[in-house]
Every structure is written in structure tokens, then in C-alpha cells.
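Inputs:
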Amino acid sequence: MSLMDQIGMGFALVAQWQSVGYLILGVTIGVIAGAIPGMSAVMAVALTLPFTFSLQPIFGILLLLGVYKGGVFGGSIPAILIKTPGTPASSATTIDGYPLAEKGQAGKALDMALYASCIADLVSNLALILFAGWLASFALQFGPPEFFTLILFSLTIIAGVSGDSLLKGCISAILGLFLATVGLDLVYGTDRFIFGSPDLMGGLNFIAVLIGLFAIPEIFAYVRQPKEIDGDVRKLGHVHLTFAEFRRSLKSILRGSFIGVILGAIPGIGAAPAAFVSYSEARRNSPNRANFGKGEIEGVAAAESGNNGVAGATLIPLLALGVPGDVTTAIIIGAFMIHGLQPGPMMFATNGDMIYAIFIGLVLSSAILLLVGGAAIRGFRYIADVPRYVLLPSVLVLSVYGVFAVNNSVFDVAVMFAVGALGYAMLLLRIPAAPFVIAFILGPLLENNFRQSLLMSQGSLDILARGPITWFFWGLTVLAIVLIVRQTMQASRERADLATLSPSPSGAPTAGRAAE
Amino acid sequence: MTLKSLAVAFGLATTALSATPVLAQYPERPVQIVIPYGPGGATDLSARALASALSSHSSEPFVLVNRTGAGGATGSAAVANAQGDGYTVLAARVGSHTVNPAMKANLPYKLEDFRFVGVYEINPVVCAVAADSDIQSMDDLIAKAKQDPAAVRYSTSGVGSMLQIAAAMVLDSFGVENVKEVTHLPLAGDGEAALAVYQGTATFICTNSSPLASFVKNGQLRPILVTTSEPVEGFDAPTAASLGHEDLESLVGWTGIAGPDDMPDEAAEQWRSWLAEAVKDETFLKFMKQVGSQVDLMSPDESLEFVNNQYQTFSRLVDELGLRVE
């Protein structure tokens, strides 16, 4: 069977109304599930899996892929509207998305999130189709030492999301690292800070920490000072994205897509770090650097393109090698196997039509995401118009419910409120939340990979520079640190100059500062 | 009468002879099945397949809840401490109920805290190395481990996982003297552990057949041992018994349903008949076969005996090798 035949047969598989129907259904389920705080894309895929058993293989797989893609985008909706990341991957989106919603530009932020998501999704799918084999063999060279250097480099992005004070960013990161140590240690199984509680043995639930850190402080703040914010009535969220803004952000979107593709192809990293790396790179390269974190549309674009760029790329190790790169693809591989299909290099020969059908379906899914996502935004953006005295209590109920639902555990709800109190204290002290999240995600990975490397080398540190990939990331890390030091010194010099010119205090951002 | 029948049941430690149910209505409300591991894992998929097979036999729905953390301990402790009304049961697994209790000194639950209604699936354990490795057989692996133990690495899904005890038990059975010196490389899940062997990060892995199936079919990993008495389809490797290591036959994965120890007889009885129905369900059987499990329903007594035997085997091994985690 020639290649063209296979592509033709693949096309025939997708060109059935059911295929498109299941894809639309999947994306819709995914967007809704992603938009519910506490429901992640992984959970949505796991819950959908049993329904695919009785379907034809291609329908079942397209349904699951649709759910996955929709879920990754859906998380950005509550991240922008109510400062509650629907999925961990969208926490970078809150940094600029929520300030935009505060300014009455929720519609604009949502538009940008959707366009950035769809473009990144498309780039990611094309990368899968064109470079799967090459990217997969590159990704497989990542062992613990390579991971360690990559994550060490990723920690430098803390400087990029620290806002005005690097010191405060570091304090936030250290708090995050500290809370991430709670639970059993991976390598020796020792208890850390669990105080005899079985609930703490598994560590702090990620979703509970995330919602506690972002959503709860807003509610506390409103309860204490309802008037101040109420006076600043939020405009209707119907401001649309202009083409000029889109064009300005295009570079960041493409950069984010590529970062997403590379990080997505490497098994075991996930979408959240990709979103943060993309965000930090966009900030570093943008002329509007100072506006990042205060409602910069380019920040939303970078974060969303980073996390959606991962979506297609995680399928690279799955389809090229039959290796599931994360939990979601491990579930999807189950859907393949239940139908007697074996993803991997052999599948191109044995079920080539299926592979091409998936490729075509994936490209189609980017377009469907644009349509379904567009409809979802039109529905959800009215949330931005809801008065705060109605919205915030609803957010509170939703947060409690969502966090409880993850594990059916009241303890997690308590964790959410405790972290919420911490988050509120940080808000009052103007300590940014993003470095906390990054450290909370990356801290355990950094530690585990470091210790795994040393186990492999029987204690010799040489292994941390064992090949070109490690050298590359060591180089990047050094470069990033040099740049950070230079920028910090420059900023403090500018601040000193400014202080001599005018006696008014500068540095700390004023809450209501308008965007340019 | 209730007291008496309870006493009888308790005395005989059996439900096979249990008296006529007092309340014929169980279940009156949804039944919660706690899965102590994350979505998409072997336990999760197995319990979800079971629940969908059961749904047509119960008037009330089943609610599946993942309570993950600490190698299954968080979810197991939650069920051990739950109300014994039969509305909270656990998808108990080899890791949470024999390996963890054998290895961890300060686990917040004991085997006696549970009432087993039935183990319904058995998963063979397979040991594998990378396909491009120069290790062709168990003998090659053992020779390497004896020569330079620290240079041989086995990947697992963490301390106190079935994978750790499986590798240690196999090495011990094949006569490696200093098993503790062989490098243990804990990773975040069994998928990652299998991947590490393929990448060359680890030398070998011993785990259930399902996470390895895909790698073996693609010719990326080479199986060198299966622990069941019968050969496993798709895994071209000798059985432990054929190599003269019958003692390894107790090394298998399993999933079963267990309630808190004070679960009422009536609920336990209902679960028994549910499980008996489920193991006849076509879709369920097909799914379990696809993921490499053998569906084999044990009675509550058999289940308890099986679990206890495995626990004791593991405990002895842990003591011998000094693997206990304090």
C-alpha cells in the first residue's frame, strides 16, 4: 500500500460525519471540563475513556484527543475571568489575563487566549506530523541529568515573573519550594512535615494550592475592603482584540508554540512549565516588558501558546515510539490497545490509515477548537459583567466544590483556605504568587532528578555534565543569571536616578494604573 | 438476632454462611469506590471497568473517587477509617495492601482494618531489560549483579512500590547475596520506570505486564522472566518455575474490593454477587485481557488467605534484606 493510498484511506476514515461529530463533542466536553476549577484535562480524559470502548477505534481516539485539546484551552477561561486557573497549565495565564479582566478587557484577553491556543495547537500538530521521528529520538535522550539541568534553567524564569522586586520573587519561590517538600520523599520514602497525618503523607494537593493561592486572596481582599474595588465598576467584557495587538503578539505566540513543542515532546514535563518558560521568554524579549504582570495582552498570548503547544507534541513519543509521555497519553494508549492497535513505529506499516486519520483529525481539531472555543467565550464572557458581590461568593462556592471534588477530601479544602491565607498575606506584602507556583511545580522535579542522577553515578557529580544537552542547559542557565544580574543592577540604578529627580515613591505598582 | 449472626460471622470469619440479610435493600444510595491511585493507572482502569460492568446490576450508581498519595496509603487510610456501612469500599491493590504494610513501619492502617470481599484480578509480573542490552537471560543479569551490584540499576515507581519488592525478591531468589547494594532508582510512576529501562537509565525492571506490553510489542524491551506458572501471551520469556524458582509464583499483582473491617454482612454479600456477575461480563473480560490481567474471582476467605500469604512472604523478605522504611 503506497503512502498516498494510506493518506487517502485515512482521509476516508475522518471524512465521516461521526468523526467530525465526536471531535466536536470531545472538544466541547474538554472546554467545559477545563473551565471548571478542579477538573483537569487529565481527569476529563480518564472519565471519557470508558465511553470509547464501544466506539469504532478512530471515533474513540478522536473523542479523547478532542477532550484533551479542549481541556488545555478551557483552563484559560476561569484563569482570566475569576483568577482561578481551571488547570495547572493555565496558571501562567492568570498573571496578565486577570489584570486585563479587571480593566474591563476580559473579552480581549479571552480572544487572545483562543487565537494563541489555536495557532500553537496547529503548530504543535504540524510538528507532530512532520518531525515526529526526529523529535522523539531527541526527547528520549533526556535522562535524569538532562532533566536536572533543564529544570535548573527553568527556575531562572522566576526572575521574569517576580515583578518589581527580585528579592520578593525569591521569597515567594522559597515558600513554594518549602511547601512542595511536604509528604513522602521519593527516593527514601521518608516522611517530611506530615505530623502523623495520613492526609499529609501524599503532599499538598496541587489544585488546592493553586486555587488557594490565586482565587482565595481576591475574595479575602474583597471581604475586607468591598468599597474600594466596587467603586471601580468593571466595564462590560466586550472589548475585542484588535488586529494590531494580534500582530504585535504573533512573535510571542510562535515562540511559545515552539517552546511548547520541544518541552511537550520530552516525556514527563507537562504543560505548566512550558507556559511559564514561554511567558518569561516573551517578557524578556518584549518592548513592553514593564507592563507584563499588569495586564499585558502579549503575556496572555505567550502563556496560552506555551501550554497549547504541548498538546500535539505529547503525542510525538506516543505515535513515533509507542511511549506515553505523560498521564494523559498513558490513558490514550489504553484506548488504542483496547482496540488491538499498537502505537509505535510499527503502526505506520500495520495501521497507516489510522495514523493518517489521526493526523488529519488533529489538524481539524485546531479549527474545531477555534469554533467551539469562540462559542464558549461568547457564553462565558458575561461572567466578567457579573457584579463582584455576586461573582466572588460564587467563585468561593465553586472553588470549595472543585477542590473537594479532586480527591473527595475535606482536608484539601482546608489546605486551600490555609494557602489562601498565606496568599492574602503575600498580596498585602506585594509578594508575587507566580514564583511560588513555579517553585512548587519544579522543586520536586529538581530534587528528584538530582538525586536520581547521583544514584545512577553512584555519587559522582560528573554525571550532571555528561553530554551536549546538559552543557547546553548549563550554558543557558549561566547566560540567564548574567542577564538577570545586569537587569537588576540597571533597574536599581534607574530607580536611584528617578529618586534623585522626583521625591515621589516609585517602584511598587499602583493597582489601578491604566494600560497604554 | 443481628448480634448473634454477626457473632457467628465473626467467629467463622466467613460470609459464605451468613444469615438472611436483615435489610434487604442494600444499596439504598450511591456506593463510593475509593481508588487509592491516580486516574489512568492500572488500579484506576481496573476499578472503572469493574464499575461499568456492575452498573447494570445495581439500582444505585457507583461513585469512583481517586484519593491518591503516598503509594496508595492516603486512600487506603481513608477507607479504613470510613464508616462501616458498606457505602465506602476500596479498590485494594498489591502495592497498598501487601507491599506497603510489609515495608513501612509507620503506615496509618493494618491489613486487619479491612474486610476483603474478593480479589478479582491477577496480573503477572514480568522482568525486562532494554532490547539493545547485552543481557539475554536471567543468568546474564544475575552474573552482572554478582560481579558489580552497584552498576546494576532497577527502576521502580517509588519506595514501597510493588516494583521495588519484585526486583529485590527476584534478585534474592536467584542467589544475589547483597541485594541492597544493587542500585534502586525510584521514579514517579511505572510508565516512567519502564521508559527509563528503554532509555538506558536503568538496567532492568520487574513489574506487571500491562505497562510493559507496549514496549515489548514494539521490540523496545526484552522480557527475561515471568512469574506466573503459565507463560504470558505476548511475552516470550521463561516462567520462574521453569527456571526452578517456584517461590516467585507468589509474586503477582492483584486488585480486589475491600471495605472497612466493620462492613455489614449484607453489603459484603451483595458485593460478592456483584463481583460474580462482573467476571462474567464480556466487555469487562475483554478489557482486562487487553491490559494483560487474568480475571480470577476469589471468595472472601480465599482472598484473605491469598493477601495474608503474600504479605507474609514480603515481610520475611523485607526483614531478611533490611528494606524496611522507618
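Confidence is low (pLDDT under 50) at residues 228-233, 504-516 of chain A. Flag for discussion at group meeting.
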